[in-house]
Specification:
Blueprint: E1 10-14, H1 19-30, E2 34-39, H2 42-52, E3 59-63, H3 69-83, E4 88-91, H4 106-134, E5 138-143, H5 157-179, E6 182-188, H6 205-208, H7 214-220, H8 232-244, E7 249-251, H9 257-269
Parallel strand pairs: 1-2, 1-4, 2-3, 4-5, 5-6, 6-7
Nicotinamide-adenine-dinucleotide binds at residues 14-15, 17-21, 39-41, 44, 64-67, 92-96, 115, 119, 143, 145, 189, 191-192, 194-196, 198, 202.
Length: 287
């Protein structure tokens, strides 16, 4: 069952207490959903709950690190107990880590992949069984980035890789989950007003230890948010419409179109013009 209205639906929005996640949560509440903000940061949660003011009966929040599988499992169990399971998962929590690639350590790789891709994986692993079991169908939106669709500069290599993983995973599972009545969308944002520059404050201690990105993330924390960057609520409207249409890609900006095309064309240019049939990977011994 595709999502055809948000009225009375329960949405779990990770990283929902700031920036894009808060924009999506605000629009979903405005369109009649009950929203649970799942966020790492208590300060963001307190601020976000205040912004909902009078409509706060439709909004609740819980503290969650999406890379913590045990905690994520507990959160999913709570959603089952409180709401009979969720209808919409927004896998949006992410960190904008960046730094000189030659100084990156395992802490930086694990942090980037663990939150940006691992958090999405954990969302699917915990909530797909819940959506299948309650039989109401559902929808899963995962926030990647336009950084996943173009060749990025080296200081964003880990970030781009983590977001490309989100894209390819979601593309690959969409048809199968569709058979279960679960829609899948990928949000590909360009620049949006948010607190993404606060990466350093979102690093758990075990991924700060030994990081080669300390200096670059300290600099990033002083970055100024552009006046012409998109408003999070505008992204929220695109996402809500994308869910209703079960759109695979929800793209906020067009300025990378040539770079996207150039990357796709470079891969095609390197591809031989062979005429043979595609290999059959579905044959097995003893069958
Ligand atoms: N803002 C942009 O320009 C932009 C562009 C492309 C993609 N994105 C992506 O959008 C998503 C949202 O980012 P944003 O720009 O709104 O930034 P943001 O920092 O304002 O919001 C992200 C929220 O996620 C939370 N968070 C961070 N790590 C977490 C964790 N481990 N577990 C749970 N919550 C966690 C933060 O506390 C914060 O409230 C991210 O995935 C980001 O990579 C943002």
């Amino acid at each position: 069952m595709a999502i055809d209205s948000f009225e009375g639906k329960v949405a779990f929005v990770t990283g929902g207490a700031s920036g894009i996640g808060l924009g999506i949560a605000t629009v979903l509440v405005g369109r009649g959903a009950k929203v649970v903000l799942a966020d790492l940061r208590h300060d963001h949660i307190e601020h976000a709950l205040r912004t909902f003011g009078g409509r706060s009966n439709a909004v609740s929040a819980l503290q969650l690190d999406v890379s913590d599988r045990a905690a994520y499992r507990e959160a999913a169990a709570r959603m089952q107990a409180e709401f009979g399971g969720i209808d919409i998962l927004v896998n949006n929590a992410g960190v904008g880590l960046e730094g000189p690639i030659l100084e990156a350590t395992y802490a930086d790789y694990d942090f980037g992949m663990g939150v940006n891709f691992g958090g999405v994986v954990n969302g699917f692993v915990e909530f797909v069984p819940q959506m299948r079991a309650h039989g109401r169908g559902g929808h899963i939106v995962s926030t990647a980035s336009l950084a996943a669709e173009v060749v990025m500069p080296e200081h964003l290599a880990i970030y781009a890789a983590s977001k490309a993983a989100v894209c390819h995973y979601c593309e690959a599972v969409k048809a199968r989950l569709g058979e279960e009545g679960i829609g899948v969308s990928i949000l590909l944002p360009g620049p949006v007003k948010s607190n993404i520059h606060e990466t350093q404050s979102n690093r758990p201690a075990h991924w700060l230890e030994g990081s080669g990105y300390k200096a670059s993330e300290a600099k990033l924390s002083r970055r100024i948010v552009g006046d012409n960057w998109m408003e999070p609520k505008a992204v929220g409207e695109l996402v809500a419409d994308g869910i209703l249409a079960n759109r695979t890609y929800i793209v906020t900006h067009g300025f990378y179109k040539d770079a996207m095309r150039a990357r796709a064309e470079a891969v095609l240019a390197a591809t031989p013009d062979t005429q043979e049939a595609a290999p059959d990977f579905g044959r097995f011994r003893d069958e």
